[in-house]
Amino acid sequence: MLLLICGLVLFLGCHSLRVGPASLRDGLVQRLGAGGFKGLYSIVSLIGFALIIWGYSQARLSPAVIWLPPVATRHIAVLLMLPALILMVATYIPANVLKAKLHHPMVLSVKVWALAHLLSNGNLADIVLFGSFLIWAVLAFRAARQRDRANPSEPVPYKPLGLILTLVLGTGAWAALIMGGHRLLVGVSPFG
């Protein structure tokens, strides 16, 4: 569990630089230079991500059960993953209405992903992992919206093709996960 927690601190800590005061991130960029900051950020993020994967896999070997979720929560989680994946894809597809209107679809995707997995998993490691990501996503989205209000941007144009592509790719990713991709990546079927 210690590896998981260390990984979460490193990974989410890096990704929280925009949650706190702008002076913290700006000071680091000024001291390290843009390239140095990006390099350090990337290295710390990758180490944190690797520790999360390693720590979570180790914690799953001897699970500490906190609660036993009802079977229905697995089905709810599978349904919640559809908008989570559509929002994730929306982050990368230009000129789609979801990105234009929501401004931060990736953070919203992480919120939905974390909530879905909290509902359907009851081990301590699951609660620590997905709970940490949910708390981070709530704080990150709040901070991003505050930045948006302080510095409004020009409306982003969008086209119907952007939304169609986002929906098709997001739904395709969701279908791939429930048809065996989740078992292949994580070792667990979404339906148990």
Task: Give a brief rundown of this model.
This protein is mainly α and 192 residues long.
Can you describe this structure?
With 192 residues, this protein is an all-alpha fold. The chain has 2 domains: 1-62; 64-192, no CATH class. The protein has 7 helices and no strands.
How would a crystallographer describe the biggest sheet?
Answer: none
Helical percent range? Answer: over 70%
Radius of gyration: 18 Å
Shape: globular
Unreliable segments (pLDDT under 50, ≥5 consecutive)? Answer: none
- Distinct helical segment count: 7
Class inferred from helices and paired strands: mainly alpha
Number of domains as seen in the coordinates: 2
Q: What is the element string, with H for helices and E for strands? A: HHHHHHH
Distance between the termini: 23 Å
The total beta strand count reads 0
Report the β-strand fraction as a percent range. Answer: under 5%
Rounded mean pLDDT score? 92
Layout: helices, strands, pairs:
Blueprint: H1 2-14, H2 22-61, H3 72-92, H4 97-102, H5 105-120, H6 124-150, H7 160-186
Any descriptors?
about 190 residues; 2 domains; about 0% strand; mainly alpha
